[in-house]
Design goal:
Distance between the termini: 16 Å
Helix content: 40-55%
Strand content: 5-15%
InterPro entries: P-loop_NTPase (IPR027417), Shikimate/glucono_kinase (IPR031322), Shikimate_kinase/TSH1 (IPR000623)
Bound molecules: adenosine-5'-triphosphate, (3R,4S,5R)-3,4,5-trihydroxycyclohex-1-ENE-1-carboxylic acid, magnesium ion
Cofactor: Mg(2+)
CATH architecture of one domain: 3-Layer(aba) Sandwich
Strand order of the largest sheet: 2-3-1-4-5
Catalytic activity: shikimate + ATP = 3-phosphoshikimate + ADP + H(+)
Number of strands: 5
CATH class of one domain: Alpha Beta
Keywords: Amino-acid biosynthesis, Aromatic amino acid biosynthesis, ATP-binding, Cytoplasm, Kinase, Magnesium, Metal-binding, Nucleotide-binding, Transferase
Organism: Fluviicola taffensis (strain DSM 16823 / NCIMB 13979 / RW262)
Largest sheet: 5 strands, parallel
Number of helices: 8
Amino acid sequence: MEERKDGKQHIFLIGFMGSGKSTVGELLAERLSLPFIDSDREIEKSEGKSIDEIFSREGEKAFRDMELNFLVELKGLKPSVVSLGGGLPAINGALELMHQFGLVIYLNTSLLTLIQRLKNEKDLRPLLKDLSDAEFHPFVEDLLSQRVHFYKQAKLIMPNERNSPIELVDKLTKELNKLNY
Ligand SMILES: Nc1ncnc2c1ncn2[C@@H]1O[C@H](COP(=O)(O)OP(=O)(O)OP(=O)(O)O)[C@@H](O)[C@H]1O
Ligand SMILES: O=C(O)C1=C[C@@H](O)[C@@H](O)[C@H](O)C1
Ligand SMILES: [Mg+2]
């Protein structure tokens, strides 16, 4: 298994839907000259279906099994920046695997900012797409509160809120240097 200076293999970005993992992950990978991998996109590619189709045809449990499988298989790959699906850290055993072979970073975005971002894109996300306007805020609030204690087990917690994605990449590279990554 190839490792970087700190003995860790990958950089994992975790956080709620809409926290910016895919956007920031791609930019961070470019900055560090590492490959970029997005769990949602990889699962779509290997299944030949959209996340939405997987949820509707095979169910959420099948999708969670695919996510865990994706994580296990990362062990054989060269060091990469990996953006993980919003629900992945809540799967039993997933955080342990992430800490084993990666540096885990939580992109922390407030409920109100998440709601603003997700309202414009909710059709892309199977858990959100059928919610009415009245249901949207309480659903996101409840799911975030169930997930936040998993996210907070990250090694680094970085707000992604009042900054551009590029500004966050600047901050992240400074933090990674401090950790000798
Ligand atoms: N710092 C930021 N400032 C403003 N908008 C942002 C910022 N970071 C991300 N966004 C925007 O938020 C939206 C969601 O970002 P993105 O798709 O990267 O989130 P995600 O964490 O990958 O979500 P999911 O878990 O559903 O895949 C996108 O429209 C993106 O452009
Ligand atoms: O938070 C979640 O459970 C999800 C987040 C997305 O990244 C996708 O993995 C999918 O829409 C489920
Ligand atoms: Mg994403």
